[in-house]
Amino acid sequence: MKDLSLLTWKEIKSLDKEKSIVFVVLAPIEEHGLCLPLATDLLEGLHWSRGAMARVEAALDAECCYLPPFPVAAASVTGFYGSIHFTMKTTYDVARGILESLCCMDFMHIIVIASHADPQHQIAVEKAVRKVNRRYGTRAMAPMGPIFMGAGVAQAEPVRRMQQEHADDYHAGWVETSCMLDIDRSSVRDGYRQLPDSEIFGRDMIFRKRQEQAMGVYGHIGSPQYATAELGKLLNENCIASLCEAVVCFYKRSGYQRYAKYPLYAILPLHIGFLGMAGKVRRRSPEKRRQGA
After folding, report:
1. What residue ranges of the chain have pLDDT lower than 70?
2. Global pTM?
3. Positions of E strands within 99-232
Protein backbone atom coordinates (compact mmCIF):
# COMPACT_ATOMS: atom_id res chain seq x y z
CA MET A 1 0.00 0.00 0.00
CA LYS A 2 1.25 3.45 -0.87
CA ASP A 3 0.15 6.87 0.36
CA LEU A 4 0.17 8.93 -2.84
CA SER A 5 0.44 12.17 -0.90
CA LEU A 6 3.88 11.12 0.37
CA LEU A 7 5.27 10.41 -3.10
CA THR A 8 6.83 12.86 -5.54
CA TRP A 9 5.16 13.52 -8.88
CA LYS A 10 7.86 11.54 -10.64
CA GLU A 11 7.37 8.55 -8.33
CA ILE A 12 3.64 8.64 -9.06
CA LYS A 13 4.35 8.87 -12.78
CA SER A 14 6.49 5.73 -12.59
CA LEU A 15 3.74 3.60 -11.03
CA ASP A 16 2.20 0.89 -13.19
CA LYS A 17 -1.25 2.45 -13.58
CA GLU A 18 -2.76 -0.73 -15.02
CA LYS A 19 -1.92 -2.52 -11.76
CA SER A 20 -2.59 0.33 -9.32
CA ILE A 21 -5.88 0.75 -7.45
CA VAL A 22 -6.49 4.11 -5.78
CA PHE A 23 -8.78 4.43 -2.74
CA VAL A 24 -10.33 7.79 -1.84
CA VAL A 25 -12.38 8.26 1.36
CA LEU A 26 -15.00 11.01 1.13
CA ALA A 27 -17.08 11.52 4.29
CA PRO A 28 -18.20 14.31 6.62
CA ILE A 29 -17.28 15.83 9.91
CA GLU A 30 -20.71 15.65 11.52
CA GLU A 31 -22.42 15.03 14.82
CA HIS A 32 -22.98 11.40 15.77
CA GLY A 33 -25.11 11.65 18.87
CA LEU A 34 -23.78 11.85 22.42
CA CYS A 35 -21.55 8.78 22.23
CA LEU A 36 -19.58 8.99 18.96
CA PRO A 37 -17.04 11.51 17.59
CA LEU A 38 -17.66 13.88 14.69
CA ALA A 39 -15.17 11.92 12.56
CA THR A 40 -17.08 8.63 12.84
CA ASP A 41 -17.79 8.27 9.11
CA LEU A 42 -14.20 9.14 8.23
CA LEU A 43 -12.82 6.63 10.74
CA GLU A 44 -15.13 3.92 9.43
CA GLY A 45 -14.15 4.68 5.83
CA LEU A 46 -10.46 4.52 6.68
CA HIS A 47 -10.86 1.24 8.57
CA TRP A 48 -12.86 -0.40 5.79
CA SER A 49 -10.56 0.81 3.03
CA ARG A 50 -7.39 -0.32 4.86
CA GLY A 51 -8.90 -3.73 5.49
CA ALA A 52 -10.03 -4.06 1.87
CA MET A 53 -6.68 -2.93 0.49
CA ALA A 54 -4.83 -5.65 2.40
CA ARG A 55 -7.17 -8.32 1.06
CA VAL A 56 -7.15 -6.98 -2.48
CA GLU A 57 -3.36 -7.03 -2.61
CA ALA A 58 -3.41 -10.63 -1.39
CA ALA A 59 -5.96 -11.59 -4.05
CA LEU A 60 -4.59 -9.70 -7.07
CA ASP A 61 -1.31 -8.91 -8.74
CA ALA A 62 -1.96 -5.25 -7.99
CA GLU A 63 -0.83 -2.49 -5.66
CA CYS A 64 -3.27 -0.39 -3.65
CA CYS A 65 -2.68 3.33 -3.21
CA TYR A 66 -4.61 5.89 -1.21
CA LEU A 67 -4.97 9.58 -0.52
CA PRO A 68 -5.65 11.30 2.81
CA PRO A 69 -9.40 11.33 3.52
CA PHE A 70 -11.45 14.28 2.29
CA PRO A 71 -13.87 15.59 4.97
CA VAL A 72 -16.46 16.75 2.43
CA ALA A 73 -20.02 15.45 2.24
CA ALA A 74 -23.62 16.41 1.58
CA ALA A 75 -26.44 15.68 4.02
CA SER A 76 -30.17 16.16 4.30
CA VAL A 77 -30.04 17.29 7.95
CA THR A 78 -27.57 20.17 8.03
CA GLY A 79 -28.54 22.28 11.02
CA PHE A 80 -27.51 20.04 13.90
CA TYR A 81 -24.77 21.47 16.12
CA GLY A 82 -21.27 20.18 15.35
CA SER A 83 -21.84 19.27 11.71
CA ILE A 84 -19.87 20.64 8.77
CA HIS A 85 -21.84 19.83 5.65
CA PHE A 86 -21.66 20.99 2.05
CA THR A 87 -24.19 21.23 -0.76
CA MET A 88 -24.65 18.37 -3.18
CA LYS A 89 -23.15 20.56 -5.89
CA THR A 90 -20.01 21.27 -3.84
CA THR A 91 -19.66 17.59 -2.95
CA TYR A 92 -20.07 16.69 -6.61
CA ASP A 93 -17.47 19.27 -7.66
CA VAL A 94 -14.93 18.02 -5.10
CA ALA A 95 -15.47 14.37 -6.03
CA ARG A 96 -15.26 15.16 -9.73
CA GLY A 97 -12.11 17.22 -9.22
CA ILE A 98 -10.40 14.39 -7.36
CA LEU A 99 -11.43 11.81 -9.93
CA GLU A 100 -10.44 13.90 -12.94
CA SER A 101 -7.06 14.64 -11.37
CA LEU A 102 -6.42 10.93 -10.84
CA CYS A 103 -7.57 10.15 -14.39
CA CYS A 104 -5.15 12.75 -15.72
CA MET A 105 -2.41 10.89 -13.84
CA ASP A 106 -3.46 7.84 -15.92
CA PHE A 107 -4.89 5.79 -13.03
CA MET A 108 -7.31 3.19 -14.37
CA HIS A 109 -8.90 1.83 -11.17
CA ILE A 110 -10.28 4.40 -8.68
CA ILE A 111 -12.49 3.45 -5.74
CA VAL A 112 -14.40 6.18 -3.88
CA ILE A 113 -15.23 5.15 -0.30
CA ALA A 114 -18.26 7.35 0.39
CA SER A 115 -18.64 6.13 3.97
CA HIS A 116 -21.62 8.37 4.73
CA ALA A 117 -24.95 6.72 3.94
CA ASP A 118 -27.05 9.85 3.40
CA PRO A 119 -28.72 9.60 -0.05
CA GLN A 120 -27.71 13.15 -0.93
CA HIS A 121 -24.05 12.27 -0.43
CA GLN A 122 -24.26 9.00 -2.30
CA ILE A 123 -26.05 10.61 -5.25
CA ALA A 124 -23.59 13.52 -5.45
CA VAL A 125 -20.62 11.13 -5.47
CA GLU A 126 -22.18 8.76 -7.98
CA LYS A 127 -23.06 11.65 -10.28
CA ALA A 128 -19.39 12.67 -10.26
CA VAL A 129 -18.33 9.07 -10.97
CA ARG A 130 -20.75 8.81 -13.89
CA LYS A 131 -19.56 12.12 -15.36
CA VAL A 132 -15.89 11.14 -15.17
CA ASN A 133 -16.52 7.66 -16.56
CA ARG A 134 -18.34 9.12 -19.55
CA ARG A 135 -15.38 11.35 -20.29
CA TYR A 136 -12.44 9.05 -19.58
CA GLY A 137 -13.96 5.59 -19.91
CA THR A 138 -14.87 3.39 -16.95
CA ARG A 139 -12.19 4.16 -14.41
CA ALA A 140 -14.03 4.87 -11.16
CA MET A 141 -16.61 3.27 -8.92
CA ALA A 142 -18.32 4.26 -5.66
CA PRO A 143 -19.54 0.95 -4.14
CA MET A 144 -20.53 2.02 -0.62
CA GLY A 145 -24.08 3.14 -1.49
CA PRO A 146 -25.02 -0.29 -2.90
CA ILE A 147 -23.20 -2.03 -0.02
CA PHE A 148 -25.13 0.03 2.54
CA MET A 149 -28.33 -1.11 0.84
CA GLY A 150 -27.51 -4.81 0.88
CA ALA A 151 -25.25 -5.57 -2.07
CA GLY A 152 -22.30 -7.78 -1.27
CA VAL A 153 -21.57 -10.52 1.22
CA ALA A 154 -24.46 -11.75 3.37
CA GLN A 155 -24.46 -10.54 6.96
CA ALA A 156 -23.75 -12.97 9.79
CA GLU A 157 -26.73 -14.41 11.65
CA PRO A 158 -26.32 -12.25 14.83
CA VAL A 159 -26.39 -9.11 12.68
CA ARG A 160 -29.41 -10.29 10.68
CA ARG A 161 -31.23 -11.01 13.92
CA MET A 162 -30.48 -7.53 15.25
CA GLN A 163 -31.62 -6.00 11.96
CA GLN A 164 -34.95 -7.72 12.42
CA GLU A 165 -35.36 -6.89 16.10
CA HIS A 166 -34.04 -3.33 15.94
CA ALA A 167 -34.56 -2.17 12.38
CA ASP A 168 -34.39 1.39 11.01
CA ASP A 169 -31.11 2.07 12.79
CA TYR A 170 -29.66 4.81 10.60
CA HIS A 171 -27.40 7.19 12.49
CA ALA A 172 -25.21 6.68 15.57
CA GLY A 173 -27.41 3.79 16.69
CA TRP A 174 -26.39 0.21 17.45
CA VAL A 175 -24.83 -0.25 13.99
CA GLU A 176 -22.37 2.64 14.05
CA THR A 177 -21.73 2.44 17.78
CA SER A 178 -20.90 -1.26 17.39
CA CYS A 179 -18.57 -0.51 14.47
CA MET A 180 -16.73 2.09 16.51
CA LEU A 181 -16.49 -0.17 19.57
CA ASP A 182 -14.59 -2.58 17.33
CA ILE A 183 -12.50 0.07 15.53
CA ASP A 184 -11.54 2.18 18.55
CA ARG A 185 -13.26 1.56 21.89
CA SER A 186 -11.72 4.71 23.39
CA SER A 187 -13.62 6.87 20.90
CA VAL A 188 -17.02 5.70 22.20
CA ARG A 189 -18.23 7.73 25.15
CA ASP A 190 -19.54 6.00 28.24
CA GLY A 191 -23.28 6.19 28.71
CA TYR A 192 -24.35 4.86 25.29
CA ARG A 193 -26.25 2.06 27.00
CA GLN A 194 -28.43 4.62 28.77
CA LEU A 195 -29.45 6.47 25.61
CA PRO A 196 -33.10 6.08 24.57
CA ASP A 197 -34.26 4.56 21.29
CA SER A 198 -35.07 7.01 18.51
CA GLU A 199 -37.40 5.56 15.91
CA ILE A 200 -38.23 6.43 12.32
CA PHE A 201 -39.59 4.43 9.40
CA GLY A 202 -37.16 3.93 6.54
CA ARG A 203 -39.44 5.65 4.05
CA ASP A 204 -39.34 8.81 6.18
CA MET A 205 -35.55 9.14 5.99
CA ILE A 206 -35.86 11.17 2.78
CA PHE A 207 -37.72 13.92 4.68
CA ARG A 208 -35.47 16.34 6.55
CA LYS A 209 -38.03 17.44 9.12
CA ARG A 210 -38.90 13.87 10.06
CA GLN A 211 -35.22 13.09 10.51
CA GLU A 212 -34.79 16.11 12.75
CA GLN A 213 -37.80 15.07 14.84
CA ALA A 214 -36.38 11.57 15.27
CA MET A 215 -32.96 12.92 16.26
CA GLY A 216 -34.51 15.18 18.88
CA VAL A 217 -31.99 16.55 21.38
CA TYR A 218 -29.75 13.48 21.24
CA GLY A 219 -28.65 13.41 17.60
CA HIS A 220 -29.01 9.69 16.93
CA ILE A 221 -31.54 7.66 14.98
CA GLY A 222 -31.73 4.09 16.22
CA SER A 223 -30.78 2.21 19.37
CA PRO A 224 -27.19 2.73 20.55
CA GLN A 225 -27.91 0.89 23.80
CA TYR A 226 -27.75 -2.47 22.01
CA ALA A 227 -24.28 -1.92 20.54
CA THR A 228 -21.47 -4.42 21.22
CA ALA A 229 -17.91 -4.81 20.00
CA GLU A 230 -18.79 -8.34 18.84
CA LEU A 231 -21.49 -7.02 16.54
CA GLY A 232 -19.09 -4.32 15.39
CA LYS A 233 -16.49 -6.87 14.38
CA LEU A 234 -19.07 -8.74 12.30
CA LEU A 235 -20.33 -5.53 10.68
CA ASN A 236 -16.85 -4.27 9.86
CA GLU A 237 -15.78 -7.68 8.57
CA ASN A 238 -18.82 -7.78 6.29
CA CYS A 239 -18.14 -4.30 4.93
CA ILE A 240 -14.48 -5.09 4.27
CA ALA A 241 -15.33 -8.39 2.58
CA SER A 242 -18.02 -6.75 0.43
CA LEU A 243 -15.70 -3.90 -0.51
CA CYS A 244 -12.93 -6.35 -1.39
CA GLU A 245 -15.30 -8.31 -3.61
CA ALA A 246 -16.45 -5.11 -5.33
CA VAL A 247 -12.89 -3.94 -5.97
CA VAL A 248 -11.70 -7.29 -7.33
CA CYS A 249 -14.69 -7.42 -9.70
CA PHE A 250 -14.07 -3.85 -10.82
CA TYR A 251 -10.36 -4.47 -11.37
CA LYS A 252 -11.25 -7.42 -13.60
CA ARG A 253 -14.18 -5.45 -15.11
CA SER A 254 -16.41 -8.44 -14.56
CA GLY A 255 -19.51 -8.65 -12.38
CA TYR A 256 -18.98 -5.25 -10.71
CA GLN A 257 -22.20 -3.65 -11.97
CA ARG A 258 -24.24 -4.41 -8.84
CA TYR A 259 -21.75 -2.32 -6.88
CA ALA A 260 -21.77 0.52 -9.39
CA LYS A 261 -25.38 1.70 -9.18
CA TYR A 262 -26.91 3.23 -6.06
CA PRO A 263 -30.58 2.09 -5.95
CA LEU A 264 -31.92 5.48 -4.79
CA TYR A 265 -30.17 7.35 -7.62
CA ALA A 266 -33.25 6.85 -9.80
CA ILE A 267 -35.49 8.81 -7.38
CA LEU A 268 -35.46 12.22 -9.05
CA PRO A 269 -36.72 14.26 -6.03
CA LEU A 270 -33.52 13.25 -4.20
CA HIS A 271 -31.56 15.26 -6.79
CA ILE A 272 -33.26 18.51 -5.77
CA GLY A 273 -30.16 19.51 -3.82
CA PHE A 274 -28.53 20.46 -7.11
CA LEU A 275 -31.14 23.17 -7.71
CA GLY A 276 -30.28 26.64 -6.38
CA MET A 277 -31.85 27.55 -3.06
CA ALA A 278 -33.32 24.05 -2.67
CA GLY A 279 -29.82 22.74 -2.11
CA LYS A 280 -28.65 25.43 0.28
CA VAL A 281 -27.05 24.20 3.49
CA ARG A 282 -29.17 25.40 6.41
CA ARG A 283 -26.80 26.54 9.15
CA ARG A 284 -28.03 28.06 12.40
CA SER A 285 -26.02 30.41 14.55
CA PRO A 286 -25.95 29.84 18.34
CA GLU A 287 -28.22 32.89 18.76
CA LYS A 288 -30.84 31.53 16.37
CA ARG A 289 -30.59 28.15 18.02
CA ARG A 290 -31.30 29.68 21.43
CA GLN A 291 -34.31 31.41 19.92
CA GLY A 292 -35.55 28.12 18.46
CA ALA A 293 -35.21 29.35 14.86
Report:
1. 201-207, 278, 284-293
2. 0.93
3. 109-113, 140-141
